[in-house]
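Weekly modeling sync, notes
Attendees: S.R. (lead), two postdocs, one rotation student

Agenda item 3: backlog of single-chain predictions. S.R. asked that every request posted to the team notebook include the full sequence so nobody has to chase files. The rotation student volunteered to paste the first one in as an example of the format we agreed on. Action items at the bottom.

Example entry:
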Amino acid sequence: MDTTLEVLTTRRSRREAHRQWPDELKARIVSESLRPGVTVNEVAVRHGLNANHLSSWRTLARQGKLILPESEDALEFAATVVETSSQVGTLEPPAAKQTSCAEIVVGPVTIRLEEGASAARIVAIARGLAASS
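Predicted structure, as returned to the notebook:
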């Protein structure tokens, strides 16, 4: 008489239970969780991991141990020249130049961008000014 033994398992092996996440994927998931209006829990559920696991990755990112990808709407900074209030009234406005450059004026601050500045750079600086005011 032949007997057959069939074993059914409901639990993954120990090796399968501990997934290895590449740093690039961790960084992308952490970056996604840092967007405004998004909760850690909903991002964790979307990617099939525990919220506390994602929180630990966020801590690594804050400590500089996990490098996040540059966001699509990253701000760029331009060099600025700061004049003291005593200099503002005494200086004559600069003479007009033959080259064209973009100027952004917000109150007493004037930002002059280099010739040929991309539209993306101008938008990034404008967003940065809007966020700071």
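Discussion: group reviewed the output briefly. The helical segments are 14-17, 23-33, 40-47, 51-62, 85-90, 119-132.
Action items: rotation student to repeat for the remaining queue; S.R. to check formatting next week.
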